[in-house]
Specification:
Elements lengths: L1 H24 L12 H34 L17 H30 L6 E8 L2 E6 L4 E3 L2 E4 L4 E7 L4 E4 L6 E4 L5 E5 L5 E7 L11 E7 L1 H18 L3 H11 L25 E3 L5 E3 L2 H9 L21 H12 L3
Parallel strand pairs: 1-5, 4-10
Antiparallel strand pairs: 1-2, 2-3, 5-8, 6-7, 6-9, 9-10, 11-12
Helix pairs in contact: 1-2, 2-3, 5-7
The protein binds copper (II) ion.
């Protein structure tokens, strides 16, 4: 009995020390990115309970083990066998019933937290998200806005309706906590209510190919008024752009995710830059050279593997669903990049 009391006290002391050790080391708190959404509150609540459970279970295993090793060591010269124990019904019932109750409590806590993160606000703003190797594109219905950045109003639920055109991606803003896969062939939903104005980043959290690491976009949480201003400006800009071929071309390259692989400023990404491309001499993989004229650019978009640029892998998908006028608009835009 004396041993039980001592071990019991030591377990409690050790659990408290472990817990505060984890808190001081920052595991339980500072290692988290800041909490920037309503949904993160119940997730962090669950996490905090987990840290407490971990501290207790750690002590419950370590303390009796070390205690037995020290106190019940075989004495020098003692060659007798250990005591033979047949079984203990009380003990078996106890260690079945207690974990059962604990698991039921955990299931309830998990379900509660899931319910909180999935809570639907009927007034949620809908934004369409397209994931594609290696960009995110955000479309604001009824405004004409197609954006490379995600702007969200603070304290308002938004529902992202997400689609992938190629492989599985995963939408993850650490400060919002919730993470959601984007799967080709279906629309997945992601509900979030940002609570803190600021600039964050969405990262793809599913290894999706060569430039997976670069698949990130800005997520900007605006005050309500700033958000409205942004929407107004962007929809005006989208309308003006739609009045000229190069403006339309620029919208198309955002919409089709071309900028995930091509830069417009000379930077080499997964694909060659478009800066000063038009009219230049392009070295191909077979050693020949072509002039980047309308016909070459058109073929490069519709059938990228026919003429491979030297030094690049064949990863560009064929954009053969683009219409003739789309292609003409894109080329008009490429011509402006000098
Ligand atoms: Cu991805």
């Amino acid at each position: 009995m004396r041993h039980f009391v001592i071990v019991g006290i030591l377990v409690v002391v050790m659990a408290v020390l472990t817990y505060f050790g984890l808190v001081v080391a920052g595991v339980a708190t500072q290692m988290h990115p800041i909490e920037a959404s309503l949904q993160s509150v119940s997730i962090d609540w669950l996490w905090h309970w987990e840290i407490m459970a971990i501290s207790f279970l750690f002590s419950l295993i370590i303390v009796p083990m070390v205690y037995s090793m020290v106190v019940f060591r075989r004495k020098k010269g003692d060659t007798t066998d250990a005591e033979h124990i047949e079984g203990n019904t009380t003990l078996e019932i106890t260690w079945t019933v207690i974990p059962l109750i604990v698991v039921l409590i955990l299931a309830y806590m998990g379900a509660y937290s899931l319910g909180q993160t999935r809570r639907v606000d009927p007034n949620a703003i809908v934004i369409k998200v397209k994931a594609q190797q290696f960009t995110w594109t955000f479309e604001y219905p009824n405004t004409g806005i197609i954006s490379e950045e995600l702007h969200l109003p603070v304290n308002q639920q938004v529902v992202l309706q997400m689609e992938s055109t190629d492989v599985i991606h995963s939408f993850w803003v650490p400060e919002f906590r919730v993470k959601q896969d984007v799967v080709p062939g279906r629309v997945t939903e992601y509900r979030i209510t940002p609570t803190l104005v600021g600039t964050y980043k969405v990262r793809c959290a599913e290894l999706c190919g060569m430039s997976h690491y670069a698949m990130e976009s800005l997520v900007i949480v605006d005050a309500q008024a700033d958000y409205t201003t942004w929407i107004d400006q962007q929809s005006k800009a989208a309308f003006e752009a739609s009045q000229s071929p190069e403006g339309l071309g620029k919208l198309l390259i955002v919409q089709n995710g071309c900028i995930g692989c091509h830069s417009t400023d000379g930077l080499k990404m997964a694909g060659p830059t478009w800066f000063e491309l038009y009219g230049s001499a392009v070295l191909l993989a077979d050693g020949s050279t072509v002039t980047a004229d309308d016909a070459y650019l058109r073929d490069s978009i519709l059938n990228p593997k026919a003429q491979m640029v030297d030094g690049f892998p064949p990863i560009m998908p064929a954009f053969d669903k683009l219409s003739d006028s789309d292609i003409a608009n894109i080329i008009a835009y490429l011509k402006t990049l000098k």
